[in-house]
Every structure is written in structure tokens, then in C-alpha cells.
Amino acid sequence: MRTFYYAHTGHRIGLDRFRRGASIIKALGDTEITMLCSDFRIAQVAEEYGVKNSVGVDVVRNIPQIAHHGDRIIFDSDEANPIMLEDMKNFFSTFIHLDNDTVSVDEDFFGDEEKTIKMTYFFGDDDYEKDLEKNLSLLDGLEPHLQLGFYYFLDYEDMLKIKFKSYSEFEEYQETIRKTDILITASPQAVLESLASNGRPIYIKREDYTDDYDNLFKSLNVPIVENYDNQKLTSIVETIDNQNYKKIEQLSNKINKIIKENFNL
Predict the structure, then answer these.
(1) Residue 14: DSSP 8-state
(2) What's the CA gap between 89 and 107, in Å, rounded?
(3) What share of the chain is helix, strand, coil (3-state, %, to 5)?
(4) Could you please report the per-residue DSSP string of 93-122?
(5) Using the 8-state DSSP alphabet, how is residue 224 labeled?
(6) Domain 3-105+252-263 maps to which CATH number in 3.30.70, 3.40.50, 1.10.10, 3.30.420?
């Protein structure tokens, strides 16, 4: 009986679920678990994030080609309809479906590293429609450092590097988050990682992203900006010293305890 972790990833959905999954698998320690990614590119480099075993499955319906009846799975996706979810529950001996707003952050983000970067803009790892470029007016007057994403096109990256005075490559992501004071981002996972690093995140809510994080971020006093509103963002930045951010716990161990109890690991 094998254990799998499926994370919905890709150039239209980003890496938020992958980063969350990697933090959970890493916290599980020596437990043998295989991550299934709906993208082959991130599966090839997953080991760099503490994931020893990873396989690209392209689409969620290909999971049964890798897993066998009676195996166990942690399912981090909202792709499946109710019928498909019921089929999976019958196929796997244990099926854990994570909520979209499950909080889990890699332990390496927790700490109080010196904030050598005043402000960073990380739109996200996915920008197939080039929304970052279309909405650059959001950043008028702010001049933040740019953190590039994983699924950007080469010509797109070249253009962005010209638009911003300074930038970090994808491989520098974790270091950039830890060293950034004010993080402007449309990535929910990056918001949580910034909080763990004692940063001050501002969440840019994308129209194509779920609303599931709204209540969580409000409870953590994370400002939310909609419609790429430059005036609101500028006001938040100017008054950010008055923003009473809440701390987040390192919940990976709690989640792993639940997983181990359900999987009898």
C-alpha cells in the first residue's frame, strides 16, 4: 500500500498547492510518500523542495495510472466534481481532501531574518494571460523589487526585467520572501510565507482565484486589494505601520499528525 499526495499545479494555476504540499511532506520526515503534480516541469525539480519522490500526471484523471486500488492519497485540488470525488473515495483506502485555505508553511520561512528588501512584488508563479504586465499601473509610484515566477515565458521575463529596477530569479524565491519587509502578492501561499517570516504582506486578489482565503486573511489582518486599485494599495503602504498583523503558527506538524492518524503511519 503506497501513499500519494496530489497537488494541482501548472501554468494556469501556479505553485501554491505544490509549496503547501512540499511543506507537509517535508514535515512528515521519513514517511515514504510520492507527490503527484499535474505538471511535469515542477515534478522534475521537486526534490529541491524536500520532496524525494514526485511524478507528473498531466491531468487528475491520470492518477489511477500511477496509483493502485487500496492505496492512500492526500488530495489538494478543487478540480474534481462530486462524482469523481466519490469514485476516488472508493478507489483509495484512505482519502484526505484538503480545504483550499489549509495553512501549512515550510519551517525554513519561520524566523526573523534581516529585512534587506524594502518592498517586493510577487504576482505569482502563473501568468499565462500576462496580467502582471496588463496591470502594472497598480504599482505606480511604489517601485518595488520584482520576484519572477516559475511559469513565465522567456520573452515575458525579459520584458519584466526591463520594467523593474531590480528583480530576483525564480530560484531566489525563498530568500526573497524571507528578506522582504513589505510583500505585495497575488499568491495566497506567499502571503502566509511572508507572515511566517515576520514580513508584512498585502494580498492582491485576482479575479481568476478562489475567494476561500478572504476570511483567513481578514482574521490575520492582511490587507486585501481588489481590481488592481493603485490608490488603495498606495494608501495601505503609506499607513502599513498601523497594520496590526497577526502571527501564524507552524501548522505542518498538526496537519501531519492528522495524516498519520488517518493513514496509520
Answers:
(1) B
(2) 31
(3) 40, 20, 40
(4) SEEEE--TT-----GGG-S-----EEEEEE
(5) E
(6) 3.40.50
Residues with Cβ within 8 Å of residue 34, at least 6 apart in sequence: 2, 3, 4, 5, 53, 54, 55, 66
Per-residue pLDDT of the chain (265 residues; tens, 9 = 90+): 899 999 999 988 999 999 999 999 988 877 789 999 999 999 999 999 989 999 999 889 899 999 999 999 999 999 989 999 999 999 999 999 998 888 899 999 998 889 999 999 999 999 999 999 999 999 999 999 999 999 998 899 999 999 999 999 999 999 999 999 999 999 999 999 999 999 999 999 998 888 889 999 999 999 999 999 999 999 999 999 999 999 887 766 677 677 767 767 6
Instruction: Give residue 75's identity as a one-letter amino acid code.
Output: F
pTM over the 0.90 mark = yes
